[in-house]
Amino acid sequence: MAETPKKRSKQTPKHQQHDLSSSNAITIPATPVALEPTPVRRSSRLYTTPTAATAPPPPPPRFTRRKSLNFTTTTPTPIPKTPKKPAPQSQEDAAKQISPISPDRYETRRKRKLDEEKNAGLAKNKDLKGGKKRVYYRKVVYDGGEFSIGDDVYVKRRENAESDNEDPEVEECVMCFKAGRAVMIECDECLGGFHLKCLKPPLKEVPEGDWICRFCEATKLGKNVELPVPPAGKKRARTAKEKFLSSDLWAAHIESMWKEVDGTYWFRSRWYIIPEETAAGRQPHNLRRELYRTNEFADVEMESIIRHCYVMNPKDFSKAADEGDDVFLCEYEYDVCWHSFKRIAEISNNEEDAEEDESDKDWNSCEITDSDSEDDTDYKKEKINGSQRGPSFGHSLAANLRKGQFFGLQKIGAKKIPEHTRCHKQTEIGKAKAMLLLACLPKSPPCRNKEMEEITAFIKGAVSDGQCLGKCLYIHGVPGTGKTMTVLAVMRTLKIEVDSGNIKPYCFVEINGLKLASPENIYRVIYEALTGHRVSWKKALHLLNERFSNGTNWEEENNKPCILLIDELDLLVTRNQSVLYNILDWPTKPHSKLIVIGIANTMDLPEKLLPRISSRMGIQRLCFGPYNYQQLQEIISSRLKGIDAFEKPAIEFASRKVAAVSGDARRALEICRRAAELADYRLRKSQSLNDSAGTRRSLVGVADVEAAVKEMFQAPHIQVMKSCSKLSKIFLAAMVHELYKTGMGETSFEKLAMTVSCLCTSNGEAFPGFDTLFRVGCKLGECRIILCEAGVRHKLQKLQLNFPSDDVTFALKDSKDLPWLAKYL
C-alpha cells in the first residue's frame, strides 16, 4: 500500500466557509470530498443491467488494492472559557471541611472508583507524545474508499490471503461463465447467477417468488450433481459474498472511526455472523442471505477493510429489487454469551432515548478547547469507556498490520463438525433410519397418480385463459393417505409451468386449521398472505369482502387468481357456521377469482353443515382411500431405494399389519423406522459382546418389525408394566390378588405389604422391607399406574389400581423373570 500522506491544512475551504457561517448547529466533523455515486447493486433475487436508453453512471473503482488516504478537517472556532470566580465560603462549609465526619460507605467506594478512572486517563495523556489525542471522524476516505459511521464492511479474516485480492467486478453465469449485460436470475438456495437464456428450459422473464435452480433441486432429491466445468485456462473467482458465507471473511458495522497518535486509522466494529456460527446452527427458516448482529465489539485497524457490504432490515430487504450482490438481511441480534436471540426492532424501541444521550456524549466536545477539530473526543473519556466495556475475547483476530490488537467472535457456534463425527461412516441401517423420517418428504407421492391428475385438471380448468372461474374442491380421506402432500406436489408442478409461461401467474395461500387460535383468525391470515399487512380479523373480513365480493382491487398485482388451500377444514366449523359460509361464498361471486381447496378427514362433512353451506361447497369431491399393502410396500421401498438394510419379508409384514388396521402410510414408516432402531441396538450390543459378530452382514428382519408393531399398537401403560422392575411386578400382582380376595378396589398399604410378604415367602423371594416397598409404591404412583391417597405416607394410606385388573394380568402373565405370578392373577 502506498504511504499515507500527511493531513491537509486546517484552513477551511471557501465552499465550506459559507456553510459554517450560515449554520448555528455544532460543526459537522471533517468530511472528505464525496466519491461518485455507487451504481445500482445486483439484487438478491434478480440480476438486471440498464438498457441502452438510460446511460448508467460510471462505476466506482474497486477497492481491493487501495492507493491513498484522503481526508479533510475543519478548524473550529475556539470558544473562550470564562474564568470562574471562587464561590464565597460560608462558615458552615469551612466547618464541614474541618469536621472529622466519616463519609458514607457507598460514597467512598464511588469516589475511589472515579479517582482511579481519572488517574488512569491522566496518566495515559502524559505518556502521549506532545500531549496529542485521538481525533474522531464521522467520514473518512481511506485508500480510495469512503467510509462513514454506520456503514457495513467486509473485513479480512486471514493474514496475507491471496484470494482476498480476487474480487470480480460482475458475477459470472454458472452455466456459460460469462458476465455480459443480459438479465440474470439468482437461485435462492445456492445464490448462483444464471442467464435466463442459459436455463433449461429458458425463461422469458424473471418469475415472482422463490426460484431454485435444477442443481439444487437434484441435490435435495439425493442425486449426484455435476456442475458445469469452466473452459480451459479460466478459473472462476469467488465474490466477496461467497467468501463471507463460507466464513473466509468477516462482516462488521462501523460504530466509530479515529486516528491514533501514531498516524494509523482505526474503527470500532460490531460483528455480524452467519447462522452457521451460532450455537443453534443454520435452521430451515433461515434465508441464505440472513445474518445476525452480535453484541461483540472490537477495535480494528482500517487496513483490514476490503470494501462495503449492505445489511438491511426486513422491510428494506423486501424492496431491494436490484440492489446488488452484497445485500444481506438482519432482523435479530445474537448474544454470544447466553446464545439468545432478540429482535432488533424491539431493542431499538427500548434504547431510543439512550442512543440520543450517547450521540450527544460522543459528538459534543465543548469541554475540549485544544483539540484538532470539534469532532475530537478526549482520549481519557474514550479510555474510561473502553475500560468499562472491556475487551471481547470471543472473536478471532482480523487480518491487519497490528496482529493481536483486538479480539472478537471465536469458538462459538456449531459450524465445525467434530473430527470423530466427520470421519464416522454411516451404516446402511443409519441411512434407512434417516430416509424413513416423516420430515423427509419425496418430490411426488407414489401411488397417487390418478388423484394428482384430477387435481391438476381442476386447477387448470379454474384458471382458464379467458377468465378465472371461482370453484370449490373438497378432498377427504382417512389420516395418513397423502392428501396434503399430493396437493402440494401438484402446486410445485404448476409453478414450473407458470415459470415457463404455459399458465398465467396466480397466488397460492396455504392454511392449516390446527395453527389457527380461533376460526375467525383465518381472515387475518388470508389478508396478510395476499398483501403483507397485518390487521385485526374484523377489518380483514371487511377488506376481503370488498376484494372478493365487490371486485375491488387493492393493487394491480393482486388482480391475479388466488388458490386457497385449507387443511383441516372441519376445524373452521363454528356454532353459526359463518366462517365456512363466507369462505365458500366468495368463489360464487363473478369477480372473485378465488379457487378454494378444502381438506378434511371427515367424509360426510358437507352433509353435517347447513344447506346454504353444503350447496356452495359443490359436488366436486375427491376421496383418498386407505392404502393397501401393495401400495404401502411400494412407498417403503421407494424410500429405501439404493439402501440394503431391510429384508423383503420384513417390509411386506409391516405393510400387511398396517393395511389391516388403518392403511396409514405414516404409521407404516414409523414402524419400519422403529424396527431399524431395534436392529441397530441389537447389532451394537452384539458387537460390544463379541467383536467378530459385528463383521457379519445383518439386516432388519421380521422379528424386529414384530417387536416394533407390538410397541406401536400396545397401550403405553401396558408397556410400562412389562418393563418395570421385579419388585414393581410383585407389587402389582399383590394388588390384583388382594382385589380378587376381598372384592374391593381399594386396599391399605399395610394389607398390601402383608400380601407381598406372603407371596415372596411362598416363592423363595426375599422380602424387601417396608421402606423399599414405600419407594416402589411412590414410583408406580408417579407413573399413574396406581392411585395413592393424598397426604403423608403411612401404613393406612389407601391404594387403588388406575387401570382394569385385566390389563395388569395381560402385562404380567407372560413374565419370564417371574413365571410364578400367573397363578396369582
Automatic annotation (TrEMBL):
<feature type="domain" description="BAH">
    <location>
        <begin position="228"/>
        <end position="345"/>
    </location>
</feature>
<dbReference type="Pfam" id="PF09079">
    <property type="entry name" value="WHD_Cdc6"/>
</dbReference>
<dbReference type="InterPro" id="IPR019786">
    <property type="entry name" value="Zinc_finger_PHD-type_CS"/>
</dbReference>
<dbReference type="InterPro" id="IPR027417">
    <property type="entry name" value="P-loop_NTPase"/>
</dbReference>
<keyword id="KW-0539">Nucleus</keyword>
<dbReference type="InterPro" id="IPR015163">
    <property type="entry name" value="Cdc6_C"/>
</dbReference>
<feature type="compositionally biased region" description="Acidic residues">
    <location>
        <begin position="349"/>
        <end position="360"/>
    </location>
</feature>
<keyword id="KW-0238">DNA-binding</keyword>
<dbReference type="InterPro" id="IPR001965">
    <property type="entry name" value="Znf_PHD"/>
</dbReference>
<keyword id="KW-0547">Nucleotide-binding</keyword>
<comment type="function">
    <text>Component of the origin recognition complex (ORC) that binds origins of replication. DNA-binding is ATP-dependent, however specific DNA sequences that define origins of replication have not been identified so far. ORC is required to assemble the pre-replication complex necessary to initiate DNA replication.</text>
</comment>
<dbReference type="Pfam" id="PF00004">
    <property type="entry name" value="AAA"/>
</dbReference>
<dbReference type="Pfam" id="PF00628">
    <property type="entry name" value="PHD"/>
</dbReference>
<comment type="similarity">
    <text>Belongs to the ORC1 family.</text>
</comment>
<feature type="region of interest" description="Disordered">
    <location>
        <begin position="1"/>
        <end position="120"/>
    </location>
</feature>
<feature type="region of interest" description="Disordered">
    <location>
        <begin position="349"/>
        <end position="393"/>
    </location>
</feature>
<dbReference type="GO" id="GO:0006270">
    <property type="term" value="P:DNA replication initiation"/>
</dbReference>
<dbReference type="InterPro" id="IPR050311">
    <property type="entry name" value="ORC1/CDC6"/>
</dbReference>
<dbReference type="GO" id="GO:0003688">
    <property type="term" value="F:DNA replication origin binding"/>
</dbReference>
<keyword id="KW-0067">ATP-binding</keyword>
<dbReference type="Pfam" id="PF17872">
    <property type="entry name" value="AAA_lid_10"/>
</dbReference>
<dbReference type="GO" id="GO:0033314">
    <property type="term" value="P:mitotic DNA replication checkpoint signaling"/>
</dbReference>
<dbReference type="GO" id="GO:0003682">
    <property type="term" value="F:chromatin binding"/>
</dbReference>
<protein>
    <recommendedName>
        <fullName>Origin recognition complex subunit 1</fullName>
    </recommendedName>
</protein>
<dbReference type="InterPro" id="IPR041083">
    <property type="entry name" value="AAA_lid_10"/>
</dbReference>
<dbReference type="GO" id="GO:0006355">
    <property type="term" value="P:regulation of DNA-templated transcription"/>
</dbReference>
<dbReference type="GO" id="GO:0016887">
    <property type="term" value="F:ATP hydrolysis activity"/>
</dbReference>
<keyword id="KW-0863">Zinc-finger</keyword>
<feature type="domain" description="PHD-type">
    <location>
        <begin position="170"/>
        <end position="219"/>
    </location>
</feature>
<dbReference type="InterPro" id="IPR003959">
    <property type="entry name" value="ATPase_AAA_core"/>
</dbReference>
<dbReference type="GO" id="GO:0010385">
    <property type="term" value="F:double-stranded methylated DNA binding"/>
</dbReference>
<dbReference type="GO" id="GO:0005664">
    <property type="term" value="C:nuclear origin of replication recognition complex"/>
</dbReference>
<keyword id="KW-0235">DNA replication</keyword>
<dbReference type="InterPro" id="IPR043151">
    <property type="entry name" value="BAH_sf"/>
</dbReference>
<dbReference type="Pfam" id="PF01426">
    <property type="entry name" value="BAH"/>
</dbReference>
<keyword id="KW-0862">Zinc</keyword>
<comment type="subunit">
    <text>Component of the origin recognition complex (ORC) composed of at least ORC1, ORC2, ORC3, ORC4, ORC5 and ORC6. ORC is regulated in a cell-cycle and development dependent manner. It is sequentially assembled at the exit from anaphase of mitosis and disassembled as cells enter S phase. Binds unmodified and methylated histone H3.</text>
</comment>
<keyword id="KW-0460">Magnesium</keyword>
<dbReference type="InterPro" id="IPR001025">
    <property type="entry name" value="BAH_dom"/>
</dbReference>
<keyword id="KW-0479">Metal-binding</keyword>
<dbReference type="InterPro" id="IPR011011">
    <property type="entry name" value="Znf_FYVE_PHD"/>
</dbReference>
<dbReference type="GO" id="GO:0008270">
    <property type="term" value="F:zinc ion binding"/>
</dbReference>
